[in-house]
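dumping this here before i forget
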Amino acid sequence: MAGTLILVRHGESEWNLRNLFTGWKDPGLTPKGIEEARATGKKLKAAAYSPERYYTSALRRAQHTLDLILEEMGIVNVTITRNQALNERDYGDLAGLNKDDARRKWGEEQVLIWRRSYDMPPPGGESLKDTATRTLPYYKRHILPSLRAGKTVLIAAHGNSLRALVMAIEGLTPDEILKREIATGEPVVYRIRADGKLGRRVKI
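structure:
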């Protein structure tokens, strides 16, 4: 028996639009982000997916995205689990700064290291490795058992918390996952075997 895991990065946020480091800050979705979330819901419904478990982060851009997806799928009166283990990477002192301003302050090379290295956190923040350290145990303890039991699970979260999951599920190296872009509002679907390992990635 195989379960289905659907990962969705939140739709475009107000700070995505303004080119700001966001992290654990809590801006809402833009009109485009709302449409991205609704389009994902329509796509999942058209592909006949029927999620049975629902997870999101403690941040409203991910929560709103999940609400909009479920609305488009006609799914109501369900229990949604929200947990900060699925939050975006904490950008620490970079949070709220324009990315171009950060480059002028610390230098392009240093900002690139903070953004694209696996284990070098920005001041006061988390690296992708740190994000994985909190995200993966939560996934294994609370989400994977449902997948192993054959359930369909929908997670609406963030670029880097989802990267941590993708890295583990696909068995990617740190270099490989840093090259993987996860687009806003675009679903990534996996079949997970009863042993908890990846069966296959599904295109929809």
